[in-house]
Design goal:
Layout: E1 5-11, H1 18-26, E2 33-39, H2 46-53, E3 58-62, H3 68-79, E4 84-87, E5 93-94, H4 98-108, E6 114-122, E7 128-130, H5 139-145, E8 158-160, H6 161-166, H7 176-187, E9 191-202, H8 208-211, H9 213-232, H10 245-260
Parallel strand pairs: 1-2, 1-4, 2-3, 6-9
Antiparallel strand pairs: 4-8, 5-9, 6-7, 6-8
Helix pairs in contact: 1-2, 7-9
Length: 262
């Protein structure tokens, strides 16, 4: 049977959680999918675990060197042979209806280019530690929410591959997803979210956002500085990223001091 959807799964040092991730993909109610599983030169047992749990729908590729998420994401875009690609992280868990619900929505709404979903947070043992945040659902709501925070969560999205190729794919080494969504808003891409929790997002000390946090936040600030005025004009926010008010204040002071000496 021909696949209707491609799942893009970049993999790097994921031995602790990869088997759960793969089994959640295999358990989808929509069966007509293929998986682009790209090994980004892991140094642990990820490759062995992938080959043990993968079935015939998994296409396994290996990067010749460690390319990181941005280049690996673009490789998956180039390899994709279906209209839709669902992004997945190697340490998260899909709920069984995820692919079917997103596929059905995008087929019924050709005006939507990127579709996210709600998600909850789980810890390293799989225990739910935070309920879903209620992001905006419509293109208009999401565009406004982006003035405050990125209102699409990368591991939940399914998008039209042709549209992302049209704007050149991923380009930022850090914050590769939010930078791309902001660029997409500039050219008029339409985003939506489903109000269903369809992903368990795992929070742990070894995930990329934790190990590269400062780089990620700085790249997000740069993306807002570049694209914000093009999206919102005079309403563009003086955006400074950070999880808490204190963190944002420290980053704002740091940015102002930096501007004085450059």
């Amino acid at each position: 049977m021909e696949p209707l959807v491609t799942v893009g799964l970049p993999i790097y040092n994921a031995e602790a959680y990869l088997s759960e991730c793969i089994e959640s993909i295999k358990a989808q109610t929509l069966k007509e999918f293929t998986v682009l599983a790209v090994l980004d030169c892991p140094t642990d047992r990820s490759a062995k675990i992938l080959r043990k749990h993968a079935d015939s729908r998994f296409q396994i590729f290996e990067n010749e060197s460690n390319l990181g998420l941005t280049a690996t994401g673009n490789r998956m875009l180039a390899l994709c042979q279906t209209d839709f690609l669902a992004r997945m992280d190697h340490d998260d868990i899909m709920l069984p209806e995820r692919l079917q619900k997103q596929y059905d929505f995008l087929r019924l709404h050709p005006e939507i280019d990127v579709l996210g979903t709600y998600f909850d947070l789980i810890d390293k043992s799989g225990k739910v530690v935070a309920k879903p945040h209620k992001f905006g659902l419509t293109p208009e709501e999401i565009r406004e929410e982006f003035r405050i925070y990125p209102a699409l969560h990368h591991p939940t999205v399914m998008y039209r591959v042709a549209r992302l190729k049209e704007i050149g794919g991923y380009f930022s080494k850090y914050s590769e997803d939010s930078s791309l969504w902001l660029k997409g808003l500039v050219i008029g891409l339409k985003y939506a979210n489903l109000p269903d929790c369809l992903l368990h997002y795992r929070v742990h000390s070894k995930q990329t956002l934790s190990t590269q946090r400062e780089h990620w936040l700085a790249a997000l600030d740069d993306a807002y500085a570049e694209f914000g005025p093009q999206i919102w004009g005079d309403r563009a926010p003086n955006f400074v990223s950070g999880a808490t008010r204190m963190e944002r204040m420290k980053r704002r002071i740091k940015r102002k001091l930096s501007s004085l000496f450059t």
